[in-house]
Design a protein that fits this description.
Blueprint lengths: L10 H12 L5 E5 L17 H6 L6 H13 L4 E5 L9 H10 L3 E6 L6 H9 L4 E6 L4 H8 L4 H14 L4 E6 L8 H11 L3 E4 L21 H12 L5 H19 L16 E4 L4 E3 L9 E2 H19 L4 H5 L10 H8 L7 H19 L1
Parallel strand pairs: 1-2, 1-7, 2-3, 3-4, 4-5, 5-6
Antiparallel strand pairs: 7-8, 8-9
Helix pairs in contact: 3-4, 5-7, 9-14, 10-14
Amino acid sequence: MDVGSHSSSGPYEDYLCDRASAYEQPILGTFELTPVCNMSCNMCYVRMKKSQVDSLGGLQPEEFWINLAKEAMDNGLLFLLLTGGEPLIYPNFRSLFTKLQSMGLFITMNTNGTLIDEDMAKFFHDHMLRRLNITIYGKDNETYERLCHNPQGFTQLERAIHYLKKYDVPVRLNCSITSQNYEQLDDFYRIAEEWEVPIEISYFMFPPNRREDKEHFEQYRMTAEQTAKIAYAIHTHNYSKEQKKEYAKAKLEHMEEYKNDKELKGGFYCRAGNSSFWINWQGKMVPCGIMNGPVHDICTDGFKKCWDDVLVDVKKIKLSEKCFRCEKHEICPHCAAVEIAECGEFGISPDYPCQIADFYKDLLLKELEQ
């Protein structure tokens, strides 16, 4: 599933999150209820079989998540993301969701949408879900079969959208671009327009550092050049020729200004480990779902101590100085999660994002030359 699904609903929410960051309060949280999923996407970094989960102690019970939510709310939690795997297959999902929602949390959820029928859509309407983020993997069932091993995936998604719109449940499509669907970018925009739902497209595929079977990963990730082209197409979607030229000019000028910035400091770019946290299915807290560490055990230490420890740990992390000083910083998909996923440790400049930035800069220069 996508990890960039905590996006704001407006300036007021941005203000709250900025204030929480200033005071290091965990206003944003993610509960990864289960790594088990009803699909088997080639590039997924989370998915595990139920037998694997059981061999590692099984899922946390409903009471664990309820008690955790109460403690997290005492420390500032307001916006909660439920994710997986596929969260809808978590045992007693409706009971858990109902109790979390009754606590006053603003709940968003990630799902692949294939299990949503009319009854589930009505449930989300009745229980005031803040937003449903549904990942779309292809324009048709053939793509779903090739990429997700679900020959009815698109039909199931279309059904879900129909019922969710019928019951006025807020929906956003999340799209993960891979080597097996990158030629369908225009189709994704077309489908979102036809269904009258917003869409957010992710072009950077993280290595599956949470899985052992990584040997086939590279065949599903686009080349750096393909990724740069897709990123550029996303960033300039619906731009006129003149607007594209202005965009390229502004980006290149910002890059030159960035190169001359002598006050640049280290640290995370986002709110991870600052005002947001992720708790995986085993009850372990990490700053970001992509990262394997720093990690702290909620079951042993409780929420407050784990959050305090994460704050300390994140401040100690030093990211690549080369990346911080690079003029292509603004057009590079580099962050703490990227460093640890690509290199296995912090402080190293990862090659793949750097190559993407080089190709992206070339596209900007070519735009001005046309």
